[in-house]
Design goal:
Blueprint: H1 4-38, E1 44-50, H2 58-71, H3 74-77, E2 80-85, E3 106-108, H4 109-116, E4 121-127, H5 131-138, H6 142-146, E5 150-157, E6 179-183, H7 191-197, E7 201-203, E8 225-230, H8 238-248, E9 253-256, H9 262-271, E10 272-276, H10 284-291, E11 295-299, E12 316-317, H11 320-335, H12 338-355, H13 359-370
Parallel strand pairs: 1-2, 1-4, 2-3, 4-5, 5-6, 6-7, 8-9, 8-10, 10-11, 11-12
Length: 384
């Protein structure tokens, strides 16, 4: 005899499973109908490959900007441009990216592979962290992809720390020799980085203000709330740092940025006095703070900060050990002095604008990419 509560739980799981399956089938059907309608006659295609489970990060937002800009360059590349979610074995298909404002339809890579047999040109823009997975997935489509006259795989190498070693994706050369990378930061747009992965490198800087931060406007000291926000990235000492802030700043709400849409995050950042990044260092969590009238804290990382000038900034520390040791006291100093707070925020904003990426640089980089004018090409080594 089954226990009633277990029967109810089992029935609930079955209903949930059927609901997910039904929803997935509906989304896939919608994707298929729209894909066949919009690309029936397409012979040339550019695909920006999104993460499989609708993940959201700054890199995704830049992909959307790159896609929009790419459509305006059709006179150069001659392609239709679309987004497709990565091969998804968990059946978590999605038709749109709902974490920030956009008008894009998200298709799926299975549809792109079905279309591949009738394409003359295909460019895949793929996040660097999906490189190894892409190599595994494309094996089953090797024959059809090899028949595309012009097939290019470009890795969006926005963070060299997460780009898979070449050994993990070199099987892609069995499909195409046209494999490239675009880098987002000047500090690692170098011949050395080009040689490391042995593929042509194009400089494609992100355009931060494409994320519409400036639409929200600044709030200064008196308009701010007792709110300290921090990024969801994981770093050693993170728990200790947050615990100390909570202890030393009892009047403040200490909030991790998690589960928010981009617009919700910006509204929260606009209210916050302080913002701490546990990410790359020179990232949106750090830059947005001053753009919105607050103060951002970070650890210096030479790979991502655009200038060594940031080493001399009061809110940029040399390590997370130093943040643990000094951050709480520094925050108290800025809380107690309104003029110092506003002056530091303005100083940071001016510095960030001095080194921030401009739209003309992004567009110029994208244009050179489609014209196939690389910034660096691999040098031959004695070991090759």
């Amino acid at each position: 005899m089954k226990i009633p509560i277990l029967v109810d739980i089992e029935r609930g799981f079955r209903k949930l499973k059927l609901y997910i399956k039904d929803r997935t089938n509906k989304v896939r059907k919608q994707q298929e109908v729209l894909f066949n309608k919009n690309f029936a006659d397409t012979k040339k295609m550019i695909v920006f490959v999104n993460f499989p489970n609708n993940e959201f990060c700054g890199g995704i937002m830049m992909m959307f900007y790159f896609a929009t800009a790419s459509r305006n360059m059709k006179n150069i590349h001659g392609c239709d441009v679309l987004h497709a979610n990565f091969f998804n074995h968990e059946a978590k298909y999605y038709l749109s990216q709902d974490n920030f404002k956009n008008d894009e339809t998200i298709y799926n890579m299975e549809l792109v592979m079905q279309k591949a047999k009738s394409l003359d040109k295909l460019i895949l823009h793929v996040p660097e962290m999906l490189a190894a997975d892409l190599a595994k997935e494309l094996k089953k489509y090797k024959k059809v992809l090899k028949n595309i006259p012009d097939f290019q795989i470009n890795f969006l190498n926005q963070n060299i720390d997460v780009f898979s070693p070449k050994e993990e994706w070199q099987s892609l050369y069995e499909i195409t020799q046209n494999i490239t990378q675009t880098t987002g930061f000047e500090r690692y747009t170098t011949q050395e980085i080009c040689n490391k992965w042995k593929i042509p490198l194009y400089y494609l800087p992100p355009f931060h203000e494409a994320n519409n931060v400036n639409d929200y406007g600044k709030k200064h000291y008196k308009e701010k709330e007792k709110l300290f926000i921090y990024s969801p990235d994981e770093k050693p000492l993170k728990a200790e740092i947050i615990a100390k802030l909570q202890k030393e700043l009892p009047d403040f709400k200490i909030q991790e940025i998690k589960g928010l849409t981009y617009e919700e995050y910006l509204k929260t950042a606009q209210r916050a006095m302080f913002e701490l990044t546990f990410g790359e260092g020179y990232d949106a969590y750090f830059v947005d703070a001053s753009l919105l009238g607050g103060i951002g804290f970070s650890v210096y990382n030479e790979r991502f900060f655009p200038s060594a000038k940031y080493k001399d900034v009061e809110t940029v520390y040399e390590s997370y050990e130093k943040i643990l040791e000094n951050l709480a006291d520094d925050v108290k100093k800025y809380i107690e002095n309104e003029d110092l707070y506003n002056e530091l925020s303005e100083k940071m904003d001016n510095l960030n604008h001095e080194f921030s990426f401009k739209p003309d640089k992004t567009l110029k980089g994208l244009e050179k990419f489609y014209k196939r004018i690389p910034t660096f090409v691999p040098e031959e080594s004695k070991n090759d």
